[in-house]
Amino acid sequence: MVTLRALGRLGLKPESTRVVIQGFGNVGGMAAKLMSGMGFQIVAIVEYDGAVYNAHGLDIAALQQHRKETGSVTGFSGSEDMAKADALFLDCDVLLPAATENVITSHNADRIRAKILCEGANGPTTAIADQILAEKKIFVIPDILANAGGVTVSYFEWVQDRQGFFWNEQLVNDRLEEIMVAGFDAVVGFSDKHAGVNNRTAAYMLALDRVASAIRLRGLYA
Fold it and tell me: Do 82 and 52 form a contact (C-beta atoms < 8 A)?
């Protein structure tokens, strides 16, 4: 959802967008499945034991079955194996680190060749790396926004439990999209409004502004 929004800002279309995903678990695996279904070209998947690459796009369903059968993404017939240390720096449109923190650092940020960095993991980019990415004009969708979908749906579950009324999958997806798109637009709008502020800082500023507004409305002891 937020990646599609970012593509629109850069004038890109899913069918011509090459994606590299680090991690093939709950976050990365689902991102690969959904993005592939929308027409994105998932050209590389990076895992702890290696990486696989296909310049024309990986068959994600077949790769998931291969990993289920073998325990690894490597050795997949629809791709070529490559070093995981090199896969992150492939020429691509979207890089989605969805594995561990501190993956993109001051030592390697200058090697990133993506147009968009969408942070599926918590804290995959260090503060100094953030500055380097800004200098390279890479559009960063920070983790506080990019991976907020899971927490949002957990909130939906709480709301349904409180109501004693349960939504269908389509309604959950529609409401999730509405919130995520609104969040993206608000963050990017804050960044545009405050010149020189990147998306991560804008997200923090927006969050603090909302908390301050809520406190003013409710009062300290409400």
Answer: yes
Interatomic CA distance for residues 82 and 84, integer angstroms? 6
Is the Cβ–Cβ distance between 38 and 24 less than 8 Å?
Answer: no
DSSP H helices, the chain, are: 2-10, 26-37, 60-70, 84-87, 127-135, 143-146, 149-163, 169-193, 199-218
What's the per-residue H, E or C state across 101-132? CCCECCCCHHHCCCCEEECCCCCCECHHHHHH
Q: How many CB atoms lie within 10 A of CB 114?
A: 23
Close Cβ partners of 100 (under 8 Å, ≥ 6 residues apart):
23, 121, 124
Q: Is there a contact between 88 and 103 (Cβ–Cβ < 8 Å)?
A: yes
Per residue in 108-134, pLDDT (tens digit) is 999 999 999 999 999 999 999 999 999
The whole-angstrom separation of Cα 32 and Cα 97 is: 12
Q: What is the pLDDT of residues 191-220, one digit of tens each?
A: 999 987 999 999 999 999 999 999 888 886
Which SS3 state, helix, strand or coil, does residue 146 take?
helix
How far is residue 144 from each of residues 12, 84, 147, measured CA to CA in Å?
Answer: 23, 26, 6
Token pair 């969708």: residue: 141
| Interatomic CA distance for residues 25 and 98, integer angstroms | 8
